[in-house]
Write a structure and sequence with these properties.
The structure is a single chain. This protein is an alpha/beta fold. The chain folds into 2 domains: 57-124 and 278-567, Aminopeptidase (3-Layer(aba) Sandwich), CATH 3.40.630.10; 128-275, Glucose Oxidase, domain 1 (3-Layer(bba) Sandwich). The chain is 35% helix and 21% strand. It contains 16 helices and 19 strands. The chain has helices spanning 3-17, 25-37, 62-68, 71-82, 91-106, 195-203, 249-258, 311-329, 349-357, 375-378, 390-393, 419-434, 450-455, 483-501, 508-528, 532-554; strands at 45-47, 115-122, 128-140, 143-150, 168-175, 185-189, 206-211, 244-246, 265-275, 279-286, 291-301, 338-345, 361-362, 365-368, 381-385, 415-416, 438-442, 460-466, 566-567. Strands 1, 2, 10, 11, 12, 13, 14, 15, 17 and 18 form a 10-stranded mixed sheet that branches. Strands 4-3-9-5-6-7-8 form a 7-stranded mixed sheet. β6 (185-189), α6 (195-203) and β7 form a beta-alpha-beta unit. α1 packs antiparallel against α2, α4 (71-82) packs across α14 (483-501) and α8 (311-329) packs across α14. The longest helix has 23 residues, at 532-554. The chain is globular, with a radius of gyration of 25 Å. 53% of the residues are buried.
Length: 572
């Protein structure tokens, strides 16, 4: 079929669908064939269920948002944040929040009516910790080799100090095993910074613990072995019994080799400062035109010393706030029916703060974490993580779990809402606007702000990138950030949030057709695998999703209950 003919057929089918909420199997076959023959309809490549084409839902926003997104401004803010080792309430955290606030105020937040800017202060769980400098030297055969050092907040080796580590100034012999520890020794820790090992080493007289652990996914996929010079980002909590330092795998091997020579020693200095300071959460809100008390929060955590994680998320989400304010103020986009909030703070804590202190109810939430990974440099792909659904019980193609690993999910944990479907639409529509974008999705795994909302009964999803070999290491720096990826990811997050906050009756047709496409795929896959129980759960989940979408788009006419998704697939 020629593309124009296919496009015409698809248009006819869309017109027919406008008169009814469901498609017959025959119509689905025709629609799929039309879409396949007319790639200009949907050029994005998504590893997951397809979405129905159409003008509703996220298609109302994706192209405009993508065009308005300034890569330069988003990248500049990410670069600013990457200049600091950001831990809760420390100097880098505060400096980054101040810069985000400056950008938001420049966009009219806090100055124009309907554009709120709030700062919530809550007690910090521990003193704010700011690293100033550190240096680790290996003294061997009269030669002094600097293994790692940093003297400024933006220096690459800054993660050699685990968050919470104390100051130090010492020299010690090297011990490979715990039983070799004695007064004045430095223990090479395997595995990692375990508190029980730190205590036992201190009891035996060790004055320093040295770790070089990386996760299994921290392996450079390009074959250039860049991970061998990467220092893991770790933390120590509570009363630390002795100074600790992280080193790269290459340095750890050098220390292990040097330990065989009794004359070899290490010199270590570290300077850190702590301060009693409240934890701040910054929230910018575009107030809704009809129901400003009902909001869709977008969460971008500030802490952690990485460029991708999460300076890229901070930069992209702040740019989303700036551009949305501009589009509404210029009249290019109507104010959404419900509010959209942009939240910046400490991961997990910021979500709890918003829920408890914002004075608004959450319709749904989107966590924006690690939005800017360069696929060429990191190997990471853009991902949608769904809330617990039947795929979390048993993932079947096209589902897969990332290297992060599956979360423990029981049938009673399953929820049915349309947030993942709407984010999936956004990925597709932004891909169309960008001229193509390869994305994927996976079942629930946890580990970011969406978990807090899910536990509070609020539908939520995560947009992120993985597996990134540099994740939580000193290698997570600006050369790994792709400004175009920040733009695409940010546009998808904001388009999805707007489709939720501004959901209207005319969106329902596309949502329901997309839901049917997913259910058909899921049920057929489960049945082919011989798992009729899973097929039943997907049927029930689809019913719940469709009802939630009706309530979202039709409001009181469908007895909308804000902030609570439908239960699905419960029971044993």
């Amino acid at each position: 079929m020629k593309p124009l003919a296919a496009l015409a057929l698809a248009s006819c089918l869309l017109a027919a669908c406008a008169r009814k909420a469901e498609l017959t199997d025959a119509e689905l076959v025709e629609l799929r064939a039309a879409a396949a023959a007319a790639p200009q309809i949907q050029p994005a490549a998504h590893r997951g269920p397809p979405v129905a084409p159409g003008p509703g839902g996220t298609a109302r926003f994706a192209r405009l948002v993508h065009e308005a997104f300034s890569q330069d401004q988003a990248l500049a803010l990410a670069r600013f944040a990457d200049g600091f080792y950001r831990e809760p309430a420390n100097e880098g955290f505060e400096a980054t929040l101040a810069e985000v606030e400056r950008v938001l105020r420049g966009a009219g937040f806090g100055a124009h009516e309907g554009f709120a800017l709030e700062v919530f202060e809550t007690p910090a769980a521990r003193p704010a910790w700011t690293p100033r400098s550190a240096r680790l030297e290996l003294v061997r055969d009269g030669q002094v080799v600097v293994l790692h050092a940093f003297d400024a907040p933006g220096d690459r080796d800054r993660t050699m100090l685990p968050a919470g580590a104390p100051s130090a100034d010492l020299e010690a012999r090297i011990a490979v095993r715990l039983e070799d520890c004695g007064p004045g020794s430095a223990l090479l820790l395997e595995p990692g910074l375990r508190t029980d090992l730190l205590r036992r080493a201190a009891q035996q007289g060790a004055v320093l613990a040295i770790a070089g652990e990386l996760a299994s996914y921290n392996v450079d996929p390009t074959g250039r072995d860049r991970h061998r010079d990467a220092i893991g980002y770790r933390s120590v909590r509570g009363e630390v019994p002795l100074p600790v330092v992280q080193v790269s795998p290459r340095s750890f091997e050098a220390l292990r080799a040097a330990a065989r020579e009794r004359s070899s020693r290490v010199r270590f200095t570290a300077r850190v400062e702590t301060a009693e300071r409240p934890l701040r959460t910054l929230v910018a809100t575009v107030l809704g035109a009809r129901d400003p008390g009902l909001a869709v929060p977008i969460l971008a955590h500030v802490q952690e010393p990485g460029a991708c994680d999460n300076a890229s998320g901070v930069g992209a989400v702040a740019e989303c706030a700036r551009l949305l304010a501009g589009l509404v103020q210029d009249g290019r986009l109507p104010r959404p029916r419900r509010s959209v909030a942009f939240v910046f703070g400490h991961e997990m804590a910021q979500s709890q703060v918003w829920l408890e202190r914002s004075g608004r109810r959450a319709l749904a939430a989107i966590a924006a974490d690690m939005l800017g990974e360069s696929r060429a440099e990191t190997g990471a792909e853009p991902l949608l993580e769904r809330a617990p659904d039947p795929g979390a019980l048993k993932p079947l193609p096209p589902d897969f779990h990332t290297a992060w690993g599956a979360a423990r999910v029981s049938p009673s944990d399953l929820r049915a809402d349309g947030v993942a479907l709407i984010v999936r639409q956004a990925l597709s529509d932004v891909g169309l606007a960008a001229g193509g974008w390869e994305t994927a999705e996976h079942p629930f795994e946890g580990g970011s702000d969406h978990v807090v909302f899910l536990e509070a009964g609020v539908p939520a999803a995560l947009v992120w990138h993985f597996p990134d070999w540099a994740y939580h290491t000193s290698a997570d720096r600006m050369e790994h950030v792709d400004a175009g990826e920040m733009r695409r990811s940010g546009a998808a997050v904001l388009s999805a949030a707007l489709a939720l906050a501004d959901a209207a009756p005319e969106d329902l047709d596309r949502h329901l057709r997309s839901a049917k496409l997913e259910v058909d795929l899921r049920v057929a896959t489960a049945s082919s695998a011989g798992d009729e129980d899973l097929a039943r759960r997907w049927h029930e989940h689809g019913d719940g999703v469709r009802q939630w979408l009706r309530e979202l788009c039709l409001g009181e006419r469908a007895r909308l209950s804000p902030g609570a998704g439908s239960r699905s697939g419960g029971g044993s």
